[in-house]
Design brief:
Layout (H helix, E strand, L loop, with lengths): L2 H15 L2 H5 L4 H14 L8 E5 L11 E5 L3 E10 L2 E11 L1 E7 L5 H11 L11 H4 L1 E8 L5 E14 L14 E8 L15
Antiparallel strand pairs: 1-6, 2-5, 3-4, 5-8, 6-7, 7-8
Helix pairs in contact: 1-3
Protein name: Phage tail protein
Organism: Citrobacter cronae
């Protein structure tokens, strides 16, 4: 297929996705394509690197210097299927907390690794007892970076640290920085009204 054919196909696809009122306004296909192109040029699409992360207990905003990527979600709505004869519908039954994983680099002295191990040790003691939440709860704040470089708060999460690693060392990684994941889970999936019946921290 020629390049011109590919462009024409893409243009027709965009036209097909436009709201019907643009056609109702009497605009021709060429005009709509031009307006679509102008609109797309004005939209500031977010890019994957345009974020910053702050973690209380691991250097605050300083963790962002070591950050490689972060994977997270707010919560998952679980459903339960109900059957009526041969038909089925789904009924929401719960909201479950999502795991949070961030891949970080480290210093040669293991600064991030040692700090996060201390955070994990604050959750459960060696004798099997569990500490109060005030000892181990951490706050993660995720920011969007605008084109001006100004961060805008996207999400603030109260989390429990759960795992450091798995870690992989390789003699072949002579030109790569060592990195490993830090794992957390959200403390809760509901809002401030939960303070009525959840313990204060």
């Amino acid at each position: 297929m020629a390049v011109s054919d590919l462009i024409a196909t893409a243009a027709k696809s965009m036209v097909g996705a436009l709201p019907s009122f643009m056609f109702a306004a009497g605009l021709g296909e060429a005009q709509i394509n031009k307006l679509t192109a102008l609109a797309l040029n004005k939209i500031l699409f977010a890019q994957g690197w345009m974020f910053a992360v702050e973690v209380d207990g691991i250097g605050g905003m300083g963790i962002d210097f070591f950050m490689k990527d972060i994977t997270w979600g707010t919560y998952t709505i679980e459903t339960e299927p109900k059957r009526f004869g041969a038909n089925e519908y789904n009924q929401p039954i719960a909201r479950t907390a999502q795991p949070i994983s961030m891949v970080v680099r480290d210093t040669n002295a293991g600064l991030i690794y040692d700090t996060f191990k201390s955070c994990l040790a604050n959750v459960i003691n060696d004798d099997g007892t569990i500490n109060l939440q005030s000892a181990y709860l951490m706050d993660i704040r995720i920011y969007r970076l605008q084109t001006t470089g100004v961060p805008t708060l996207m999400e603030s999460l109260s989390v429990i640290p759960t795992q450091c690693g798995e870690m992989t060392f390789s003699k072949d990684q002579v030109s790569e920085y060592m990195s490993f994941p830090l794992s957390f889970v959200q403390r809760k999936t509901f809002g401030d009204f939960s303070d009525i019946f959840l313990p204060q921290v």
